[in-house]
Amino acid sequence: MSWKYLCEVSDVETNSVKLIDVDGVSVLVANYGGGFRAMPPICPHMEEPLAESGVIANCILTCTKHLWAWDLRNLSMIGETERDLKTYEVKQEGDKVLALIDGELTYDFDEEGDDDDDFFK
Ligand code: FES
User: Fold this and answer.
1) What is the DSSP secondary-structure string of the chain?
2) What is the pLDDT of residues 28-49, one digit of tens each?
3) Does the C-beta of 63 come closer than 6 Å to ligand 1?
4) Is the full-model pTM beyond 0.85?
5) How far is the CA of 48 from the centre of ligand 1 (A)?
6) Structural domains of the chain ordered from first start
């Protein structure tokens, strides 16, 4: 495991996200006001790209596609959200944002999307 440079603190405005390539791994950096989070660039619901559908307000990241949402302060799920948001550990060193990246974090998606029925598997 090693800490990788993501960006400067000033590169990601408060309440916004930025897509960054880190040695071939696509990482979405979110500035929620109280700090930064780094995560895979897709929604764990139906693979919606969060760089486009992710909105941050009051420290809550919401995927506008179907309104799944997570509190970026503690990563708790909000409302109807059914899956945790995966994140890379993040730290700030001066003006730099770093993430602990050891391979790419991914989600498993059923062929049926969010179908919970595992009966035939
Ligand atoms: S794809 Fe993000 S909430 Fe459904």
Assistant:
1) -EEEEEEEGGGS-TTEEEEEEETTEEEEEEE-SS-EEEE-SB-TTT--BHHHHEEEETTEEEETTT--EEETTT--EETT--SPPP-BEEEEETTEEEEEESS------BTTBS----TT-
2) 999 999 999 999 999 999 999 9
3) yes
4) yes
5) 6
6) 2-101 (2.102.10.10)
